[in-house]
Amino acid sequence: MLSNLRLRLLSYLVIFYMLIAFAWWSVLLYSKNKDAYYAKVELLKMGMSAEGIYHSNEHFLHTKEYLELTKKYQRQEWMIFGEASVFIVSLVIGIWLINRGYNKEIEIAHQRRNFLLSITHELKSPIASIRLVLETFLKRKLKPEQIERFGKNAIKDSERLNELVNNLLFAAKLETAYQPHLETIHLHELVNDLVDSLSEKFPKVIFNKNIQSEISAIEGDRMGMVSVVTNLIENAVKYNFTEQPKIEINLTEATGKINLEIADNGVGISDKDKKKIFERFYRVGNEDTRKTKGTGLGLYIVSQIVKAHQGKITVADNQPQGTVFKIVFPK
Ligand code: ATP
Ligand code: MG
User: Fold this and answer.
1) Are 234 and 298 in contact (CB under 8 A)?
2) Rounded to the nearest whole angstrom, what is the distance from the C-alpha of residue 275 to the centroid of ligand 1?
3) Is the pLDDT of residue 1 over 90?
4) Which residues lie at CB < 5 A from ion ligand 2?
């Protein structure tokens, strides 16, 4: 990071030096050009006077030769001015590009570090707990109900690992070769089924469904749609520390568009973070949410799938608290 900063300062210094040097050379060129012009005018005057071509100063100023010389001088003046401007504008654009590049690089390095930290934690903790279960099985004689409890926990952890690896693979695929596998989908059925199974998974959460019964079928990727709804609902549960988490799911069709809304009464997202949460590996850096598990891939995957279906996803504040994700799909 320090050497990056040094490099940045050095490039600014070099560009600054070039600017000053060029400005100096331009001024010098300008004054030399002016001197040369005056000398040429004097020479012309002397030559013409020797040949007796002009009678007065007034007459000389209207001669063809003098006018041509002046025109040429003015052209050269404009050339110096024009080239200096182009050079200065190019340098300013150069500085701006360098600055933008450095800022992007710093942000990418920050995200990469965040990702490495979260992925290491996400991979290590299920592996450690599965290992602990296996060691316990080997070392101790357990009662059948203990075996069942520990076994179930280990399966849950392995599912988490599997989900994580799938997410990573899917995110990598989105970068290069994601082609939605299109089939006819009835969104109202898909969302209904998913909400039902997720409400079994999260019994403490109150789910409110407002799903229009007849939604036009769309051509879409079933797995992708499942991933979108699951990710949004799991986030709504995960970033909610209230006594009574509430999630409202609205699915409606109006004016040729299908609208899906998932609203929660959780911690909410600041306006600054709203702009970034759809980026790969971005996680909000507040203490509460940092305690939660995650890699910052969920919303990136969601937004890419929505995009691949020509849809649009937006995020807003819920009232009195929480977040609303709105997705609009064309029919
Ligand atoms: P992953 O989904 O990969 O397990 P994650 O949940 O951290 O990890 P995203 O789903 O991409 O990643 O979410 C990015 C960030 O946006 C989260 O870290 C969280 O801070 C914030 N966020 C997402 N959904 C909500 C929500 N419903 N309420 C509050 N904050 C949210
Ligand atoms: Mg998530």
Assistant:
1) yes
2) 13
3) no
4) 235, 298
